[in-house]
Design brief:
elongated, mainly alpha
Length: 72
């Protein structure tokens, strides 16, 4: 279900409970910050620049767990 204050472009939840929205491009920084708080519960499909930001954010902590700290 869309949260209070969700953009008018937010859809009603589909049968799987997923919600789609199309935020205005000029609010990319705000949208990134708000969606990033949802962690793995969000998937950004577009725009490509926003999807890339999420990919970069995910890569940083993933890199921490590539090596066993006992081997360092």
């Amino acid at each position: 279900m869309p949260s209070r204050g969700a953009p008018a472009s937010a859809s009603a939840p589909n049968p799987a409970g997923l919600v789609s929205l199309e935020p205005p491009a000029e609010y990319e920084d705000v949208v990134f910050d708000q969606l990033a708080r949802l962690g793995a519960d969000v998937e950004v499909l577009s725009p490509a620049c926003l999807r890339a930001r999420f990919r970069e954010r995910a890569a940083a902590p993933a890199a921490l767990y590539q090596a066993d700290p006992r081997e360092a």
